[in-house]
Design goal:
There is one protein chain. The chain is of the alpha+beta class and about 350 residues long. The protein folds into three domains: about 40-55 and about 260-345, Elongation Factor Tu (Ef-tu), domain 3, CATH 2.40.30.170; about 70-90 and about 225-255, RNA polymerase II/Efflux pump adaptor protein, barrel-sandwich hybrid domain (OB fold (Dihydrolipoamide Acetyltransferase, E2P), Beta Barrel); about 100-215. The chain is built from five helices and 14 strands. It has helices at about 1-45, 95-120, 125-155, 160-190, 195-220, and strands at about 45-55, 60-65, 70-75, 80-85, 90, 225, 230-235, 240-245, 250-255, 260-265, 280-285, 285-305, 320-330, 340-345. The strands form three sheets. Strands 1-10-13-12-11-14 form a six-stranded antiparallel beta barrel. The chain has a four-stranded antiparallel sheet with strand order 2-9-7-4, with no helix packed on it. Strand 11 and strand 12 form a beta hairpin. It is rod-shaped, with a radius of gyration of 44 Å. It is found in: Cell envelope. InterPro entries: HH_YbhG-like, UPF0194_transport. Keywords: Coiled coil.
Length: about 350
């Protein structure tokens, strides 16, 4: 019973004290917020719009992932390194893709050779050989014809049997067919290529060219290159690690930090009061005072639900906002992604 009474007494004493402390803290926080806005307004000598934002480069952060599923072979960059557009950042194992490209190149050469042979026709030596074979077949046919004619005369006098005459006739027919085949082959070799044969040959070459291009594209995808000049912000990869386009995290994050910018989300109540050319002041919890100054250079035309929050008292969270881009002074050196508070001058 005494313990219960003691507990009640402690609660009655502590709760009011905690409420007083919380009210004082909120009041002090509100005063600090007003002081921040007043300080910035005095610095800019005008009324300002306050917005949450973050530091970005000339471009937003660029997430780079592998476009094929393969093991990581080499990592060519480190965090903080500056790279130029097209520079190789990371290489995947490309031995299989290289062999596929070589195979496609060989197939293309073979199809081109077939097409060229069709265009050029047969060699003169091949045509001459076919011509001699035809003449030989004709000579054998003439000899068989004479032999048969003599056999017919001899059979009339019963000098040879009918069986022998029939064999002569069979040989004559065989040699006639041989001569006709030799003549057709010679004519075929001497004729120009047919249109449908040329169309088929050209189609085969185009198909081989496409296979080679596909193989080259796959081979090129084994290397991750910089899409633009910029600084490497993060490298999340290890040699030998398996990666794929569906990986949750990007292998490399980069951004063009040659011109630092701040992106702010302006509340819908103030969205129409922001114009290009307005002066801005940048502050952050990471440092006292104004970190940098800049100028509004771009205002996005689309309103979206608010995604960046300043965590200050009275901030509207369930609202739409308009993104504003601000070029910072060249002398400023701030880390990309730093959360900041942005104060935009209004006329």
């Amino acid at each position: 019973m005494k313990l219960f009474i003691s507990t009640i007494v402690v609660v009655l004493v502590c709760v009011p004290a905690l409420l007083v402390y919380e009210n004082q803290r909120q009041s002090q926080l509100s005063d600090n917020i007003r002081m921040d806005a007043t300080e910035v307004s005095r610095s800019l000598d005008t009324v300002v719009i306050r917005a949450a934002g973050r530091i970005e480069g000339r471009t937003e952060q660029i997430d780079l992932r592998a476009r094929i599923a393969e093991q990581i072979d080499q990592i060519h960059v480190t965090q903080g390194q500056w790279v130029e557009a097209g520079e190789v950042l990371l290489s995947l194992d490309s031995e299989l893709l290289l062999q596929e490209r070589n195979l496609a190149a060989a197939m293309l050469e073979m199809e081109e050779a077939k097409k060229e042979r069709l265009e050029n026709g047969y060699r003169p030596s091949e045509i001459e050989t076919a011509k001699q074979e035809y003449h030989a077949a004709v000579a054998r046919l003439e000899g068989a014809q004479k032999t048969y004619d003599r056999g017919v005369k001899l059979s009339e006098n019963n000098a040879i049997s009918w069986q022998t005459l029939d064999n002569m006739l069979v040989d004559l027919g065989s040699l006639r067919a041989t001569a006709a085949a030799a003549k057709s082959r010679l004519e075929t070799l001497e004729m120009p290529p047919r249109n449908d044969d040329m169309m088929a040959a050209m189609a085969s070459v185009r198909a081989a060219e496409s296979r080679l291009r596909i193989a080259q594209i796959n081979l090129d995808r084994s290397r991750i290159t910089a899409p633009s000049a910029g600084r490497i912000l993060s490298v999340d990869a290890e040699v030998g690690e398996m990666t794929a386009p569906t990986s949750a995290k990007p292998l490399i994050i980069m951004s063009d930090t040659s011109q630092l910018r701040a992106v702010a989300e302006v509340d819908e109540y103030d969205a129409l009061n922001v114009v290009v050319g307005q002066v801005c002041a940048i502050k952050s919890d990471a440092a006292e005072g104004i970190l940098a100054k800049g100028e509004v250079v771009e205002i996005e035309p689309l309103m979206n639900p608010k995604q960046m929050f300043g965590q200050w008292a009275g901030e509207r969270t369930d609202t739409y906002s308009r993104r504003v881009w601000i070029n910072l002074d060249d002398a400023v050196d701030l880390p990309v992604g730093l959360p900041v508070e942005i104060y935009i001058e209004t006329k």
